[in-house]
Amino acid sequence: MTLLKQTLNATRFVMHSMTYPYNREIIKAQQPMKYSRRGWIALLTTLVVTSAGGYAAGWFSPNETTITELAPGVFFRKSQTEPVFLGCNQGWVEFKDFVLVIDANFPNQAAEVAKLIKKHTGKPIRYVFDTHYHGDHADGNMIYTAQGATAIASENSQLLFDTKGLDGFRKSQQSKPEEYGPLNYEKPTLLFPRKMVIDDGTQRVELLHFGHAHTAGDAVAWLPKQGILFSGDAVVNGAFNYTGDSNTASWVGVLTEIQTLPIKTVAPGHGEVGDEKLVPLQKRYFVELRETIQQAIDDGKSLDEIKADIELPFYQEWTGVDVRERTENIEFVYGELTSR
Ligand SMILES: [Zn+2]
Questions:
Q1: d(Cα 27, Cα 108) in Å, to the nearest integer?
Q2: How far apart are CA 226 and CA 204, in angstroms?
Q3: How many domains is the chain built from?
Q4: Looking at residue 281, which CATH number applies to its domain?
Q5: Which residues are close to ligand 1, an ion, with C-beta < 5 A?
Q6: CA quadruple 256, 261, 266, 267: dihedral sign
């Protein structure tokens, strides 16, 4: 597959930890993506990815935003995550007469992607599918709906959009007025209970809600013809898991269901594209985190002791980050296991 790499100029600003799941700084991309002439010709670098699995291949480029054509008409845009966090990964699928965008992203990133799609395909964006309500996935909805698109999400996310989603958007209007100030919150209006299919004979995309994972309303986009899964934050590739809105026992169950799909490629919510091995890897983290913390609780250890002592070597091999650095995850799971 061809990978197009793009370096984005950016200015820094500090974000609210309350409105955003990741305790890190993010930057705002100012420079639009550049492509020459027709087609997906990278101005900077073109390279061939020999393995779809970043983990398996030991291949990561956290400092770059890249676009990969995973299959004809199916695009994956991996957002830069280091040294600063730009937003979520996105996808788009080119149908005969229209385009489906997977995850809106922040408004400024959404504007870049919308421009890029328009330039490349000339087709209208008819749908934008939000895998969940978090601002880095859904706050840019209005960029697409202003162009005539309809925003889609699972019905179980509706309440979250109306409450925490709207709340986070208003906070971002205060903290990031130059990006959010003049914009109106646009929540999804097309809602599906468990499954929705978009199929025009050329492309088929199944939007699936399995249950409470990263949030209560998580949904994924499954392309059965190509075996491609756009997983949102139900599956990430790297130390990106945020558990604050999750139910980790249910999350493991959702991943078990997702594993029944004949997956070839996973386009995760954050981090590099992966293969079918990424879903069990993600599941292993929550299974072992829960088991290890439960064992420590049974041994009479305090939360502070668990945070100091916990070991999960495979997690560092996978993400490059010591499991003890993910204190939010440890605290959340401890809370789940002690609040029964
Ligand atoms: Zn999220």
A1: 11
A2: 9
A3: 1
A4: 3.60.15.10
A5: 134, 233
A6: negative
